[in-house]
UniProtKB/TrEMBL annotation:
Encoding gene, per UniProt annotation: ribL
TM regions (residue ranges): none
Domain Cytidyltransferase-like: 6-134
GO BP terms, alphabetized: FAD biosynthetic process; FMN metabolic process
Protein name: FAD synthase
Alphabetized CDD domains for the sequence: cytidylyltransferase
Highest classification ranks of the organism: Archaea, Methanobacteriati, Methanobacteriota, Stenosarchaea group, Halobacteria
Length: 142
């Protein structure tokens, strides 16, 4: 049984998220998805939805076998519990593969790191970015 981990903020779910999780699932038999806590979302505005709601939405996707709340402090706590064979990063995530692999080795975890593919919009109005969805809400309802 090959266990795979994907992780992200997954705020205001859109087809880009579905693509990432579906692609990540192809790397093994069981996909575990970890939802980032607001304390770890430092590179963009904090999520709008509560972490439990974001977890429950990705748990409902076919590709996801188990959805987990991330640890608010140490991002390797859920990884140690899940003990995955592979971590699949999102196509545009800022994390560096070699740094993560070194941190995994330090903790004695035998796990490789891969990178998922990206997906382009299928029609002009399709929004594949939480930030773009928020901008559209503000322009239409703000
Ligand atoms: C292997 C790995 C495990 C992670 N685990 C957690 C976690 O347990 N808790 C958390 O808040 N963030 C965790 N994160 C960090 C967030 O997912 C990270 O901030 C990410 O950049 C958010 O993704 P997004 O900007 O693509 O949505 C983890 C990141 C990696 C690479
Ligand atoms: N179009 C896409 N194709 C493939 N993966 C995507 C796409 N959009 C988002 N993802 C992936 O989904 C994961 C979570 O994305 P995140 O929650 O940061 O959403 P986002 O819509 O990119 O957010 P924002 O627009 O606020 O930066 C990330 O790993 C990201 O790479």
């Amino acid at each position: 049984m090959t266990r795979v981990v994907a992780q992200g903020t997954f705020d205001l779910l859109h087809p880009g998220h579905v693509h990432y999780l579906t692609d990540a699932a192809t790397y093994g038999d069981e996909l575990h998805a970890i939802v980032a806590r607001p304390s770890n979302v430092t590179h963009k505005p904090k999520p709008i939805l509560d972490a439990r709601q974001r977890r429950d939405m990705i748990a409902a996707l076919d590709a996801v076998d188990e959805a987990h709340l991330g640890d608010p402090e140490d991002v390797f706590v859920p990884i140690e519990r899940i003990d995955p064979d592979v971590i699949v990063l999102g196509f545009d995530q800022h994390h560096d593969e070699a740094t993560i692999e070194a941190a995994l080795a330090d903790r004695g975890l035998d796990c490789r790191v891969e990178r998922a593919s990206g997906r382009d919009p299928r029609y002009d109005a399709e929004l594949l970015s939480t930030g773009d969805i928020v901008d559209r809400v503000l322009s239409r309802r703000g």
